[in-house]
Specification:
The protein has about 800 residues and is an alpha+beta fold. The strands form 7 sheets. Strands 15, 19, 23, 24, 25, 26, 27 and 28 form an 8-stranded mixed β-sheet that branches.
Length: about 800
């Protein structure tokens, strides 16, 4: 074998020294979840900086010819307490901080490791140790040592840090530096505060602009305040308030109503002194907002019940029982992916096909969806980075909504499955909506694609109403010992709220050419292989403050939805005429003056794009403003007012609540008959690559083109748009006589989205649960039924479940039962 020094010199030109900004994958294999902790360690290519496990490094060498790799191995240090305490464990402290992996927060295990780093030359795997380097020329020593130093300084330390999350990390308010404070002579006493409006003595906040002392928001369980501090902000626009009773020399709770978040105020001592408060002499007399959040979670008991904390759980190991590390608020991703990869379609696409996926992987596998999709294992860092790339929420380390992530991931699967099997088809189904005009009794049928059923929670159907009312009465009387009672809602009541006809009071009937009352009934036009049900626990209170419904629902193990099968047009039933309602157009717009337009019907199609860009809808500005003040996106507010015909805030708000989950909820308003949004003309060219992606889903080229033009040629939005505008697509390009353009030209009509169908009988096999008061905080776990045994996946902890809390789930997953 050649001298190791000579070999290293021969490959020196291939060794690149990392520069700031280079991504060096030293913690995870690009093709698997191998890490330096695993047997064989990790090999980092000293040219591409990609990491490979021992089973894949030879493959990379054969494909690229690269020979120099940095070999990293880690061994776990024995904890001192393991030696000293034996099997005894000190009692866990109750959390005092809304955090994970931080002093005072929820405990996570932190293990310490020792690292060994050496250069290895392939194919013979000759090792170059630090001792060998001392005898080599300076140019060799410097390049290798610089490479190693870069890796060491890039790491936080030789201690393998668990990812930390601190729910108390707050940002400096943009209003703090130049906050306006009124010289109104107001001085605040050091104690004895009461709301200036209602005399409440708890949850009291002082506005830092005018010194007004008012009560805070009402919480979802009825406690808290009467929203007077919030109302004061809405009337005055004064943004910052401090919670009296939390002021200490170390700080206080400061809330920004304008930024809608807890914030920091670096000038808080100065701002308090303006109203006579000496921060250095104040003592804490009330719980902070973080302490209240923890108390609410502990009082309600979600954390203990859902995580089965009161029982000794038996750890499980083996295929299909591998946990996933929390990368910092990634529990939503972990829970969803664990469930998805129990579905046969996903297993066959990304697991059974793994060898081919790896063989076909590009030169940088970290950016390949199929390669990362097959890696369900220990710490999905590359996978999380890839699926979140470019997304304003999923690219961050903030907590997210598991339901939104599931739909986001399904969209990514759709885009990346242009040919071959598409596992998302396991969830895809058609929904039929039947609207009947009550005056003419004529009907209209539409279909749309969906991937999950969203069940409302009818709180008025609770079976323990008396207990709820008694608990509420005691809280209103100030009884601090009043129990927290969870509403018991029958699952049948949730299904009834979905299946019963909905009354539409402002329906424009093409039969009577006027607004009238109609009924809308929703049914399944097809039943998917796997059915996802979301319990809509997250809603808004009467004051439009977001809240989570604390409910227990007796979700069944089996479902028979056969009675909800759509039947289509009934014998003898007349359909509503296909006539568009009168558009809401500005009265003073002279359409006939546009480019010589004279009202000739034959010219309509020629000039309609120009009309769409030149004619704007009449919108009630006051209603739009009110909706925007509630925090809804401007474009969504415009659409709400437009589609409810300027009939007022209540109708617009109902539209908002009914369309918040629409994929194009925040997209710009596109008028009926206009195929483009702002900045896109109907003749603008669209990406052939994007067209191919959408056509591969079963849509025609014309339909794909329409979707891309309606969304400014953005693929993500176009995919969302096309699935939520099937009605528009079905009626596009209709020629005289009611025949489609395809039929007129002798072609087959374009296929619709591919859906599977079968019996509507299902069995529960998994559910995802959320703990906390909103989707932006808390924790997710999932329970999966494997071989008739329920298993709890709590990030990397996998155990046999003793009492699966099926009544407290958020997302439920059913699979079809063979008849």
């Amino acid at each position: 074998m050649a001298d190791v020094g000579e070999v290293l010199m021969s490959v020196l030109s291939t060794i690149r020294v990392p520069k700031p900004g280079d991504r060096v994958h030293k913690d995870e294999c690009a093709l698997s979840f191998s890490s330096p902790d695993n047997e064989g360690g990790l090999y980092v290519c000293m040219n591409s900086f990609l990491g490979f496990g021992s089973q894949y490094v030879d493959r990379h060498h054969a494909r690229t010819g690269q020979r120099a790799y940095l070999h990293i191995t880690r061994t776990r240090k024995t904890k001192e307490e393991d030696i000293n305490t034996g099997s005894g464990h000190p009692p866990k402290k109750k959390p005092t901080r809304l955090a994970i992996g931080i002093e005072g927060g929820f405990d996570v295990e932190q293990e310490q490791y020792e690292e060994d780093i050496k250069v290895v030359i392939l194919p013979d795997r000759q090792e170059v140790t630090s001792e060998d380097l001392t005898t080599m020329p300076d140019v060799v020593k410097e390049r290798v040592r610089y490479f190693v130093c870069f890796l060491e300084t890039d790491s936080v330390s030789h201690t393998l840090q668990v990812q930390q999350w601190d729910g108390e990390v707050r940002q400096e308010s943009r209003h703090a530096a130049d906050l306006k404070q009124l010289d109104n002579g107001v001085k605040i006493p050091p104690s004895g505060w009461r709301c200036d409006v209602c005399d409440l003595q708890e949850n009291i906040w002082m506005n830092l602009t005018d010194g007004k002392v008012l009560c805070g928001r009402r919480y979802f369980d009825g406690t808290g305040g009467n929203n007077h501090a919030l109302l004061h902000f809405q009337q005055t626009g004064y943004p910052l308030a401090v919670k009296l009773g939390t002021i200490t020399p170390g700080g206080a709770d400061v809330y920004s109503y304008d930024e809608d978040d807890m914030v920091l105020d670096s000038k808080l001592p100065e701002h308090l002194a303006h109203f006579g408060i000496n921060m250095m002499t104040m003592e804490k007399t009330e719980r902070t907002m973080t302490e209240l959040e923890i108390a609410v979670n502990q009082r309600v008991g979600e954390w203990e019940v859902i995580q089965e904390s009161g029982t000794t759980l038996r750890p499980l190991f083996g295929p299909g029982l591998t946990g996933m590390k929390n990368l910092g608020n990634s529990c939503y991703l972990n829970s969803v992916m664990q469930v998805l990869f129990t579905v046969p379609d996903f297993q066959s696409k990304y697991v059974s096909n793994m060898d081919k996926i790896i063989d076909d992987a590009p030169s940088d596998p970290t950016q390949d969806f199929k390669t990362q999709g097959d890696q369900i294992g220990i710490a999905p860092q590359m996978f999380k980075a890839l699926v979140g790339r470019g997304h304003p929420e999923f690219s961050t380390n903030r907590q997210q909504d598991a339901q939104e992530f599931l739909l986001h991931f399904i969209n990514m699967v759709e885009r990346n499955c242009r040919s071959g099997a598409n596992p998302s088809e396991a969830f895809r189904f058609l929904v039929e909506e039947r609207i009947v005009c009550q005056e003419s009794q004529k009907a209209k049928y539409t279909q749309r694609v969906d991937y999950m059923v969203q069940l409302p929670v009818p709180m008025d159907q609770a079976t323990n109403t008396e207990d709820l009312q008694e608990a509420e009465r005691r809280r209103e009387e100030g009884d601090s010992a009043a129990p927290t009672v969870r509403a018991q809602i029958p699952f049948t009541a949730c299904m009834a709220a979905l299946s019963e006809p909905e009354i539409l009071t402002d329906f424009w009937s093409s039969a009577v050419q006027a607004k009238t009352t109609a009924t809308k009934t929703t049914r399944f036009a097809s039943f998917p292989d796997h059915l996802v049900i979301q319990i809509k626990k997250f809603t808004f209170g009467l004051d439009w403050v977001p809240k989570k419904l604390d409910v227990s629902i007796d979700v069944p193990d089996t479902l028979d939805l056969s009675g909800l099968r759509a039947t289509g047009q009934q014998p003898g039933e007349e359909l509503l005429p296909e006539v568009a309602p009168p558009s809401l157009v500005t009265p003073d717009v002279e359409v006939k003056g546009i480019l010589g337009y004279h009202g000739n019907e034959e010219d309509d199609s020629l000039y309609s794009p120009l009309l769409c860009q030149s004619v704007s809808p009449v919108l009630d500005d006051s209603t739009v403003s009110q909706l925007c003040e509630m925090g809804f996106p401007l474009e969504a507010c415009k659409k709400a007012v437009y589609y409810t015909g300027n009939t007022g805030i209540d109708a617009a708000m109902n539209w908002i609540m009914g369309h918040m989950d629409d994929p194009d909820f925040s997209a710009p308003l596109v008028l009926p008959g206009c195929s483009s949004g702002p900045g896109t003309t109907p003749t603008e060219s669209v990406s052939e690559e994007h067209l191919a992606t959408i056509v591969s889903m079963g849509f025609s080229r014309d339909q794909a083109t329409k979707a891309l033009r309606a969304t400014s040629n953005v693929l993500d939005r176009a995919v969302d748009w096309i699935f939520s505008h099937l009605d528009d697509l079905e009626s596009m390009d209709v020629s005289e006589g009611g025949r489609s353009a395809a039929e007129s030209e002798g072609r087959d009509p374009p296929p619709g989205p591919r859906v599977r169908d079968g019996p509507g009988k299902y069995e529960l096999f998994a559910f995802v649960s959320h703990m906390g008061t909103s989707t932006m905080c808390g924790h997710y776990v999932c329970h999966i039924k494997k071989d008739q045994q329920w298993v709890i996946f709590n990030d990397q902890k996998v155990c046999a479940s003793e009492k699966p809390p099926k009544d407290l789930g958020y997302l439920y997953f059913y699979r079809r039962v063979a008849e």
